[in-house]
Each structure stands twice: as structure tokens, then as C-alpha cells.
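User: I've been going back and forth on whether these two constructs are worth ordering. Before I decide, could you fold them both?

Assistant: Sure. I'll take them in the order you sent them. The first construct and its C-alpha cells:
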Amino acid sequence: MRKAAYMKLNAVVAISALLAGCSTLSAPFRDADPRWADYKSWTKVTELEPSTGNPTRFLGGVHMGDEGYRDVYVNDIAKEALLGSAPYNLPEGSVIVKEQFADQADWEANRKAAHTISVKVAKTDELSKDNWIWADSYKGDAGESAFCSGCHSIAAKTDFVFTHGDFLKTQE
């Protein structure tokens, strides 16, 4: 009797693990969040030149690191505020999509892009990491992220955004 119960328990655990594993495989097949699904039609703020290297000096290995190439897109809600001048306080509904490529060859061929997405979810005059949520892939779910907000806290004075009008002027 004990052996039969033990085998049933093992079967339940094995099936549960299999189902959990399969659920993570479904992410590539789902649609992107509608807040950024059409980002390629937005304003590309890095139109003249991609962001590459480590201009902020604290990039580390994030966003493909020093060797990576990055293109940044903003929706119409964010465009005016982001491309303007300080002080920055992006409106609620602002979405920023960063495409990241491992190197110049991938960027030129537009292949193997990774994505990170920032979404401003609060309308307030107070600049706070709590006003933002992040997604770590094009088809990912946006939510609070201690990792993202930790790094972006360095840019707290520019509403937790690194690529803005004043920064882009230094890259020309």
C-alpha cells in the first residue's frame, strides 16, 4: 500500500513539473503587450546613431554591455517630454522600448534583438521608481523590478530614464 501511494505521489510531482516547464515554453507564442506591440512605428530616438559603448560608466553587462548596440523607441505620449530638456517628468502612459544587439553586425542585420521595456504607470509630480514598471522581453510581462529600478535609480533626477534629450545632445 505504501509503495503504491509513493508511486502516485511521484507521478503527481513529475506531471506537475512537466506542466510547469511547458507553461514557460508558451511565452514565445503569445502576443506582445498592446502597450508596445507596435513600437517599430514609434519615434526612434537613436535614429541618427545607435547607443553603444558605456557612456554612463555604470552599464556593466546589462543591455548587452559595452560591446552592445542599442536602439531606443518612444511612444507619442513620451516623445515630447523625453526629447525636450530638463526637468524630466514623463507623462503616465509613456512607454520606452530598448532594442539591444550583441554587436555591430547583429545591429546592422537587425537580428537577434533583445528588448527591455519601461512603462510609466503613475501621474504624479513626484519622481519615484514606483511610477514605473519594466518588462525584460518583447513578449514579457511588465511589473515591478528591483533589478531595473535599482539601476534606474541612478537616473532619478531625469525620471529614471537615461536616454533623454539632454543626454542625446552629448552623443551627437
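The second construct, handled the same way:
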Amino acid sequence: MSTVLPYYPAKLHEGATWYIAFYVIDPRTGKLSRRRIKWNRIEKISERRRQGKEMCRQLNERLARGWNPLAEELASRSQSLLPDAAREFLREKEKRFEEGTVRADTLRSYRSYLSMIEKHIPIGSIPIVWAFSEKPLSHF
């Protein structure tokens, strides 16, 4: 009798873009969702490979103990005030821009979207953000 795991183990993928990929159950949909961690930042190939394998080992240990990054993220952000959620979103995108994983035009677009939202929604009128994603955001 086989056991179905709620995840696929992390694996290092080498190529033009190195990344670590694994699948976990998305608590919102109940379906498997792929998570990718870019792994190009280490210049020396042998060191990149060694650290990538170590990261996979650590991720797989956490996954085996029941860790789900999507459930963790959902719980931590499920009841945020709109201004706090917007600031956190922008801070995360600016960090990714500095890492080189988000383009300047993309960051500019995110800032523009948030500016439009602030114009249409008075700051104090929405106390809590339950579910907020790029799709509803792009409709403004």
C-alpha cells in the first residue's frame, strides 16, 4: 500500500537558470502548487551545487515534518490592515528588485497600482485584508 505525500520533495535543477523546485498543497485550492527558489547567486559552480543540495535536504526535512510555506504565508498575512499589507508587498518587491529578480518596470507598475488603490479607497475605510492578489489589483 502506498502513501500519498502532500508534497513533492525539493530538487535542484541546473541549467541556464539554477533553481530549487518542490510542490506543496495550496490550502486555498487543495491542489499541488510548485514553489521555485532561484539559485544563481553563488558564482562558483561546485559551491552552488553543494549549497543547493544542502538546501534541498533541509527543505525536505521540513516538508516531511508537515511544513507548508503556503499555509504559513496565508496564516501570517490573513488579517492585515490595507496600508500595512501594501507597505509589506512593496517592501518585498523592492527587495526582489535589489536581488535582480524583479525588473525596474515591474516595480514601477506595482507602485502605480498601489497609488491607484490609495486614490480610490480611503485609508481608514478597509480595516482588514482577507484575500488580496494581483488579479483584483490589476482591475483598478
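Notes on the second construct follow. The chain has a mean pLDDT of 82. The longest helix spans residues 45-64.
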